[in-house]
Design a protein that fits this description.
Elements (H helix, E strand, L loop, with lengths): L34 E6 L4 E6 L9 E6 L8 E9 L3 E8 L4 E5 L5 E3 L3 E5 L5 E7 L4 E6 L3 E6 L10 E7 L5 E5 L4 E16 L6 E14 L3 E3 L6 E6 L2 E6 L5 E5 L4 E6 L5 E5 L12 E4 L5 E2 L5 E6 L6
Parallel strand pairs: 3-7
Antiparallel strand pairs: 1-2, 1-24, 2-3, 4-5, 5-6, 6-8, 9-10, 10-11, 11-12, 13-14, 14-15, 16-17, 17-18, 18-19, 20-21, 21-22, 22-23
Keywords: Signal
Protein name: WD40 repeat domain-containing protein
Length: 312
């Protein structure tokens, strides 16, 4: 994690494409000073910073602090746009919880801003929203996806578990708006799922689209520079996947990448587990390919995200 050039050697020369629409007026455009959203597990907060400023308390743009217990060791964060609440935050925590919170005008938000939460079990690592249906899907590393569906799309309090889908080592989930598929990363695989039904009849079904990985899949994200690609990390590197052809290209061979995002500009940033301390899966540093790295003393970052409501 200390040497940025470990990951700079194999940049992919994909054509640039326009990123998805930015919702709620809060997500930064893909500019030289975009915002980064991180899960920090020592203070157990989701925090948002301008990427060109130090990741200090004074420079925080937003934060969300759910407390500990089932919310301990926050493992995922992202934001999505809704017609009812505007931008909402999505989070998963290895302590057992997944949930969403309302992103208000407050600078620092807490557990009382939560709109819905659930306890899927099995070390939750990711949560994604299926747009228009109001459903949510969590990934638990003990080996399954959990589907939560509403009776009223605009009312998250009506969400209830409707399906559990086996996926060994489930770590990442991301919605693919171009193909109306949900992609998930697990042990040595990225698998696409079709979505059928409405309200409490919403169901996932494994499609024929799947890609083999060499190790345990970790992060799974869109490529903001190319709508046709996904970015996935596993125990041994980072790869791009063509959503149509399923071709996989190796981008980097650095191990233990826990979060990886590629921007429209071609800049990418990542978190690499540093193998030290009580949280050896985390790191105090977010590494940027074209900018200064950001280190927060005493922190343990696990996920880092582009602060946008866009799916890609």
């Amino acid at each position: 994690m200390k040497r940025r050039n470990l990951l700079r050697a194999l940049a992919i020369g994909a054509p640039l494409a326009t990123a998805g629409a930015v919702g709620a007026g809060i997500a930064a455009a893909d500019t030289a000073n975009f915002k980064v959203m991180v899960t920090e597990q020592v203070q157990n907060k989701v925090m948002v910073f301008d990427k060109n400023a130090s990741f200090s308390d004074a420079n925080r743009y937003k934060s969300w602090s759910p407390g500990t217990g089932g919310w301990s060791n926050l493992s995922d964060c992202r934001i999505r746009d809704t017609s009812q609440f505007g931008a909402i935050g999505l989070a998963a925590a290895s302590g057992g919880k997944v949930g969403i919170w309302n992103i208000t005008t407050e600078k620092d938000q807490e557990l009382n801003d939560v709109l819905w939460s659930a306890t899927p079990g099995g070390n939750p690592h990711a949560l994604e929203r299926i747009p228009n249906l109001g459903a949510f899907v969590s990934a638990s590393s003990d080996g399954f996806l959990t589907v939560y569906a509403p009776t009223a799309v605009s009312n998250p309090s009506t969400l209830a578990k409707v399906q559990t889908v086996s996926l060994a080592g489930a770590h990442g989930v991301v919605w693919d708006p171009q193909n109306s598929l949900l992609w998930a990363s697990g042990n040595k695989i990225v698998q696409a799922y079709s979505v059928s039904g409405t309200y409490r009849n919403i169901r996932l079904k494994a499609s024929s689209k799947k890609v083999a990985l060499s190790g345990l899949g970790h992060d799974l994200q869109p490529d903001f520079s190319n709508l046709s690609l996904l970015q996935v990390s596993d125990s041994y590197g980072v790869y791009s996947i063509n959503k149509s052809t399923l071709a996989k290209a190796t981008l980097h061979t650095t191990t233990r990448i826990k979060a990886y995002v590629k921007m429209k500009s071609g800049e990418y940033f990542y978190v690499r587990g540093d193998n030290t301390g009580s949280r050896d899966w985390g790191s105090p540093t977010v590494v940027f390919s074209q900018s200064a790295d950001r280190t927060r003393s005493g922190a343990e970052f696990y996920k880092a995200r582009y602060y946008t409501t866009a799916y890609n």
